[in-house]
Amino acid sequence: MSAPTAAAPSNPSAQRPPSSHRPPSRSIHSLADLGLLDKEHPERGASVRALTLAALGVVFGDIGTSPLYTLRECVHTAEHGGPATQAGILGLLSLMFWSLTMVVTVKYLTFIMRANNHGEGGILALLALVPEKLRAPQGQKVGWVAVLVLIGAALLYGDGIITPSISVLSAVEGLETAAPGLKRAVVPITCAILIGLFYIQRRGTADVGRFFGPIMVVWFATLFGLGAYHIVEYPAVLQALSPHYAVSFFLHHGWHGFVTLGAVVLCVTGGEALYADMGHFGTRPIRLAWWLFAMPALVVNYFGQGALVLSHPEALENPFFSQLPTGPLTYALVALSTMASIIASQALISGAYSLTHQAVQLGYFPRVTVKHTSHETEGQIYIPQINWGLMVACLIVVLQFQKSSALAAAYGIAVTGTMGITSIVYYVVVRRNWGWSRWKALPLVVLFLCFDIPFFAANLLKLFEGGYVPIIFGAAVFSVMLTWKIGRSLLAEYIVKRSPPMDEFLAGLHNRLVARIPGTAIFMASNSGRVPPILFHHAQRIRVLHDTVILLTVVTEHVPVSDEDRRLEVQDLGEGFYRVVARCGFMEAPNVPEILHEAAAQCGVPVDFSHMTYYVGRETFLASGSGKMGRWQEMLFAFLSRNAQPATRYFGIPHDHVVELGTQIDL
Hints:
By secondary structure, this protein is an alpha/beta fold. The protein has helices at residues 30-33, 42-45, 48-58, 61-64, 70-78, 86-111, 123-127, 132-135, 144-172, 174-178, 186-199, 206-233, 243-253, 255-264, 271-276, 278-281, 283-311, 328-361, 384-401, 404-407, 413-432, 438-460, 468-497, 502-507, 533-542, 592-603, 631-643, 647-650, and strands at residues 371-372, 381-382, 515-524, 544-557, 568-574, 577-585, 612-621, 658-665.
């Protein structure tokens, strides 16, 4: 029997293969690692032109493929399947234009992107800016802000299922326009493309990433050219730039106008990616890419599709592909659309990896296998469990819904839910962190919510038409994240209660008649102020310790990158004991052997690398009804703990130098 140990602190770090020749890992985003990007001021590290091109390929893939299906779904919803009227089309175009303007340009690019955590954006980075007392778990309770953020993060996983499915499916459906006989081949081709897309993820995106930007330039240029051509033929469509038509649309359609918002929101899906990806490129390149390329192309193409539908009502069946005459050009547009949709899907898949990586390091997700797919670019990672899970989910969704028009009903709830949560958490940050007055912060957030809440409510009406898909998936992910956070918090409390203070332990060391043998022992410790239970048990029962004992604590801070000046802290405790505290940011991937080499080289810790033993513990959770956690929640936590990646592999600890002891715990 043995005592429990904190083999994996509640905020663990990602796996890195052990190596004594590399400096400590600092897993940042690709452009930063290549020397192209200054994290605080990215536009200073490389030409704005290069960063803008790269941002166009990575950031705007999702929102850039929305013209494939958005106007078609809006018209079908607004007109009940009947003929499109000029007033209806102009009203829809006005709603789409002002949604793009207010949600993307004003909300995200002007305000939300100012809330960055040392250059990093995204909903988990935003959580890190919230005061500790509002997000820190206390026993079985997690702060309400943290719960909101976990819901938003879980919904993003649902978005990661819907986006690849609807993007690729809608692009391949263009074959029906060119050759109606190929209708039966659409779903099999879509599934084949999705399988191939997920299969190549393990190879990484280093080689194909440089092509994303140029392809998206061609894509947006095509959108602009096609739209401009049809606007010239029907210039009256430009009247929709006036908000008057959006207001008139609601006055005329009433309740059904509100329902139509569930389709209008499709034009702003991907807006959250602008915020999440700001750490890759910086705010200025993203804003330039939006103003100079993405928004003009999107607005012109939407208006061009509207002009086409008004002048040729038969084009309503598929207005995007009807912009070109049927023939070879249609096949070329299908090919370009498929490439663009793959890029959009790639961005969401990579985003799921990054989100999981951050959630693991912040203690909201079990340890998973994190593989770095590039020797030069540490930010490019691959997580097999997430990859194959997303692939299976995408295939099920495509086979279930068959058509992008049916799948569109499932799209929107996840995105709008996350957008609304981002607005609420942003209010907390500007009030508590920036010191804004209520009268300064409240009107701004109310303005945001005036778009977020109606969009979300309209999408909730599609819950039973397919909207349940991201809800179910998000609920499962949320349960995992919340259970893991609470379980780790209770486990930490359990360990603290059974961990004596270090001074008492050292004072009684001689009384226990503990023998000392040559070599170095490393004990992982989640609490840097107390003795790990496994060390206390080892000394009390076995009565043998190495000459040098290192208590290693890995602390994941709520910043993307730790400060070099306080990255490593070493304390000589006497009696051959040393406490080493290694700090890392939630975007970094520390490796235990590398940390020890740094501690020996820079801080003089006497590490005997030829005679080194790592002591780790493995807990078995009983899941009885007597613990604080409850039977079912502890059963889930026990299942997650059993299937999490072992701490030894996760921290890059050589398996042939490990002694592992287990214990039974009832939380």
